[in-house]
Design brief:
Number of helices: 5
Helix content: 25-40%
Structural class: alpha/beta
């Protein structure tokens, strides 16, 4: 059952050798302050990076589940980091999205270009939403493009916690 769930989510797994450490990607928060994603990844907690855009219908529906997941797990074992691909040209819309959805997690701003988002995993960025799963040590273990339910995130993390993928 668990194996079918993981397969049905179409997660892409990566080898430890290919992506051993948290990425160092300079972005801005929604106040214009420079931030590095490494500030949020690899500090003893799972980090789910969700790439979103203010006009993405799926993002607008699922972001509340990301917020609830973050609220429930932030003091335990996992956090969410949002990355808006709206860019500086639409920073007002990105701020409005965060305010409208009352997002409790940090959100950074990326320009809507292939080069920035592909730095998260070295793969072609398909679109929003895209979720990147980083383990507590900062290693990228999966990517999911498309809608994702909170329950699926929790089951995926639990499965990896039960079956450590350890170094290969």
């Amino acid at each position: 059952m668990l194996q079918r769930l993981v397969c049905s989510l179409v997660f892409l797994f990566f080898s430890a050798a290919a992506l051993a450490a948290a990425p160092s990607i300079e972005l801005q928060d929604l106040d214009g302050k420079p931030r590095n994603v490494s500030e949020f990844i690899g500090h003893g907690k799972w980090t789910i990076v969700v790439a979103w855009a203010h006009d993405c219908l799926i993002c607008n529906h699922e972001i509340r589940e990301m917020a609830a997941f973050h609220d429930d797990r932030k003091d335990k074992d996992a956090i969410v980091l949002g990355v808006s691909i709206d860019g500086m040209a639409q920073i007002g819309e990105a701020r409005e999205f965060v305010a409208d959805h009352k997002l409790p997690f940090m959100n950074l701003l990326a320009e809507p270009e292939q080069g920035v988002m592909s730095q998260f995993d070295g793969q072609y960025f398909v679109g929003t939403p895209t979720h990147y799963f980083y383990d507590p040590s900062g290693r990228l273990v999966a990517r999911k493009v498309g809608p994702l339910k909170r329950k699926d995130i929790e089951e995926f993390i639990e499965a990896l916690n039960e079956r450590p993928y350890a170094s290969q």
